[in-house]
Design goal:
The protein is an alpha+beta fold. The chain folds into 2 domains: 11-194, 2-Layer Sandwich (Beta-Lactamase); 233-399, Histidine kinase-like ATPase, C-terminal domain (Heat Shock Protein 90, 2-Layer Sandwich). Helix content is 47%, strand content 19%. It contains 9 helices and 14 strands. It has helices at 25-47, 51-65, 108-115, 134-138, 171-232, 236-261, 270-285, 302-323, 367-378; strands at 11-12, 70-77, 82-89, 100-102, 119-121, 143-149, 157-163, 267-269, 289-294, 299-301, 331-339, 343-350, 382-384, 393-399. The strands form 3 sheets. The chain has a 7-stranded mixed β-sheet, with helices on both faces. A 5-stranded mixed β-sheet has the order 9-11-12-14-13, covered by helices on one side. Helix 5 runs antiparallel to helix 6 (236-261) and helix 6 runs antiparallel to helix 7. The radius of gyration is 37 Å and the shape is elongated.
């Protein structure tokens, strides 16, 4: 074998004369077209073109740029020490995705793979340095050129151009082919990294959803126990307190339930979440009737939705218990609206007896009222009681972001 000892020097047949400068108009136009092809490949690589589409595009453009009938991407299969024809142009049916060539040092493609040196064989019928792969013999290939497809950690394979026609590949051709291979190699490594990141993200999302699901199930067990104790409690006040506690925990559990199945687990639709809160509260505030008004969706972090749900749960439960004393009943209105892109407004009102004169929520000893005040402060929300001709009107303005 007459192989170069210089690792950066192409391995070319000694009688090849394709390195003589050729500045004819045709040659110049071809070099310009090769530069356009490299620019086109670079754009597709940066755009993240789908992997197989990018391989097919590369072989088609590389063949065009070298005026060759054949081109192929050979993917290295380490377990078999073979190179698989992963993509190609010009080959007979049944070659791409099936045919392989040897990846050992006696193979032109194998030599390029293991040494990183480009290999030019301009007269395969007289080649003495390497064995000519059977695939090339079957297709009557006269000359071939191989360059490595290098990744960050390990070579992906080889980019090879083949031709039946007379002529010779030279140094300009190998520079073009290596340029195409470098662009493709960069894109391959980028897509490998993207797949690894996506796999890690998918696993992270799966684990988070599983955690949320288990938390929700645990909360359901606690809710069930509280309701059983409420039903068995001999004291009415104790029973009511246990029922309220179950309702509060249920509000948290509902948010975790939505987080476990939401496509965007970081944010949920506040409107749909609150709709579920109201549906569960309807029975507990009956015969009062809840009227819910909202348009579109409002995306908000799940942890903030939980706190908002707890506040709304307390305010509606209070309206159901205190707005219409005795056997009286009436409506409870809730409206939710987004204010530009920064906050959400929630209004809860009734037509009941209203707030007692001189009432100061900050001095209240009721757990529900203290909970509403504390959670509002945690959300940096503005909590007010606008004047109302009849009943109670409570307004919340809450920033969408923490």
């Amino acid at each position: 074998m007459n192989q170069s000892s210089d690792p950066g020097k192409p391995v070319v047949e000694s009688k090849a004369n394709g390195n003589r400068p050729d500045m004819t108009e045709r040659a110049l136009n071809l070099r310009l077209r090769q530069q356009e092809i490299l620019a086109e490949l670079g754009v597709h690589a940066l755009q993240g073109t789908e992997f197989l589409e990018l391989l097919n595009l590369t072989v088609a453009l590389a063949a065009e740029g070298l005026e060759a009938e054949y081109c192929k991407v050979l993917e290295f299969i380490p377990a078999e020490n073979r190179l698989l024809v992963r993509a190609g142009v010009g080959w007979d049916k049944g070659i791409v995705g099936v045919a392989t060539v040897g990846a050992d040092m006696a193979s032109p493609a194998g030599y390029a793979l293991h040494t990183g040196k480009p290999v030019i064989s301009n007269h395969l019928e007289n080649e003495e340095r390497f064995r000519t792969p059977e695939l090339l013999v079957e297709h009557g290939i006269h000359r071939a050129m191989n360059v490595i497809l290098q990744g960050d950690n390990a070579p992906f394979g080889v980019l090879e151009v083949d031709s039946k026609s007379p002529g010779e590949f030279g140094k300009h051709d190998i520079a073009f082919l290596q340029g195409a291979a470098n662009i493709l190699g960069m894109a391959i490594e980028h897509q490998r990294s993207q797949r690894k990141l996506q796999n890690a993200l998918d696993r992270h999302e799966l684990l988070l959803k599983e955690v949320n699901h288990r938390v929700k199930n645990s909360l359901q067990v606690v809710i069930g126990m509280l309701r059983l104790q409420a039903g068995a409690a001999p004291d009415t006040e104790l029973s009511a307190g246990l029922t309220e506690a179950a309702s509060r925990i249920s509000t948290i559990g509902r948010a975790y339930d939505r987080l476990a199945y939401a496509a965007d687990y970081e944010k949920i639709d506040l409107v749909e979440y609150l709709r579920g809160v109201f549906d569960e509260l309807r029975a507990s505030v009956a015969p009062n009737v809840i009227h819910f008004e909202a348009r579109g969706e409002i995306r908000i972090a799940g942890e903030r939705a939980i706190l908002i749900g707890l506040i709304v749960n307390e305010l509606i439960a209070n309206a159901g218990k205190y707005a219409y004393p005795g056997d009286a009943s009436g409506p409870i209105w809730i409206s939710v609206a987004q204010i530009e892109d920064c906050s959400v407004s929630i209004s809860i009102r009734d037509e009941g007896v209203g707030i007692p004169p001189g009432y100061d929520a900050t001095q209240s000893k009721r757990l529900g009222t203290r909970l509403v005040t504390a959670l509002s402060q945690q959300l940096k929300a503005t909590l007010t009681n606008p004047a109302s001709a009849r009943g109670t009107n409570t307004s919340l303005v809450i920033p969408l972001e923490a």
